[in-house]
Amino acid sequence: MAGSTPSEYIKHHLQNLTYGQLPEGSVRPDGTVLSEATWTIAQTSEEAANMGFWAIHVDSMAWAIGLGVLFLFLFRRAAKSATSGVPGALQNFVEVMVEFVDGSVKETFHGKNSVIAPLSLTIFCWVFMMNLMDLIPVDFIPHLFTLAGFPYMKIVPTTDINVSLGMALSVFALILYYSIKIKGVSGFVGELTLHPFSSDNFFLKLLLIPVNLLLEGVSLLAKPVSLALRLFGNLYAGELIFILIALLPFWAQWALSVPWAIFHILIITLQAFIFMMLTIVYLSMAHEDSH
Amino acid sequence: MNINLTILGQAIAFFIFVVFCMKLVWPPVIAALQERQKKIADGLAASDRAQRDLEMAQDKSAQELREAKQQAAGLIEQANKRAAQIVEASKDDARKEGEKLIEQARAEIEQERNQAREALRAEIGAIAIAGAEKILEASVDASKHNEMLEKLAAEL
User: Which of B14, B34, B38 to mutate to test the interface with A (most CBs of A within 10 A)?
Assistant: First the structure.
């Protein structure tokens, strides 16, 4: 299925395996015309686009959930047999991660909240593992799946905007939840409308509300968007460069792919860390009742 | 690049993972870490205590050693004194014994001298009488001249 021209090759690599409902009258690649709406796997990018919102990226979900389960399986195994005595190799590793995350959380967030630290650990490890898939040579696994009959296979979930946006929106929901829980509805609304411009004059104050709402609303909404796009953009660009490098003759690829992969080790770790740190910062801001 | 249900799926998976991590992963690991921290702190405290105990025991043993030395010195001094006393007493005894022996010897000598003197006196009396008899060629009445002889004897 891999395209014969570079452009087709790249497009093919950037298309998710999509399962969704094709509308009535769609023409399949083999020429048949659907007489009624059908749930199926998209065979082309156009079909995937036609499926609209009510479709799901099977590859992204499968890899994301698989990696998440692997992460929790490893950590749960270490946690179940955790001793305060001499730790084994796995427990040692898990403890290092937990202490690292715990330290980061304690540095930034000073309130009392039992959710933020495990949340941060999950974000960091999960995002890191999803990013790590980027280091697997771009053709290995997709080619195997092509042989097995799948039209597409994207193995790096974080290069799918849906995945990073899904996580960012979950964090956004937590920001809203804690803002309202800590400050109350009126406190939160006040924060959005009465700052940064404020006045003692009542009418002036009223006049400034739309301005404040615009400013604060944008900065609030920018949080999930920037969170999602930063992770997605970095990984998508990295993946794209790997794909471009893969277009070179096979004997020349290493000269570019090895340095890029080494550099990418930094990027995937950094992006996972940034996602975690920003989550902590945003949630700690949601807890602060400074205004 | 289609936005679709994957967002929701990812959010649900995220939620489940976070809850799992929060309930089943985080608490045991943190508990183990805190327990180890406590153990280490306890161990350090115990070693401090043991150090102090050791120092106290060393002090105590040094003091007992000092006391024992003093006691031993006292005992030796006592023993020396006692020995000197015993030597002194035995010297005294010996001297007294010696003096007694000398005294006895003197008494015996005196006695023997007196006896010898008495015997000599009697002998001299007899010799004087015999001499006088010989001179006077006559028998001298011993009883008549006894008084004179006595005087003579007393002069000896």
Answer: B14
Q: Which residues contact A140 (CB under 8 A, 6 or more apart)?
A: none
> Whole-angstrom Cα distance, residue B57 to residue A290?
58
Is A166 an 8 Å CB contact of chain B? yes
| Partners of residue A49 in chain B, C-beta under 8 Å | 2
Residue A49 has pLDDT above 80, yes or no: yes
| Active-site residue (options: A179, A230, A257, A290) | A230
pLDDT at residue A220 greater than cutoff 90: yes
Nearest CA to A153 out of A7, A15, A48, A9 is that of A15
Tokens of A252: 């020349």
pLDDT at A2 over 70: no
| Closest alpha carbon within chain A to B35 | A84
Q: What is the pTM of this model?
A: 0.77
Q: What is the pLDDT of residues B22-56, one digit of tens each?
A: 999 999 999 999 999 999 999 999 999 999 999 99
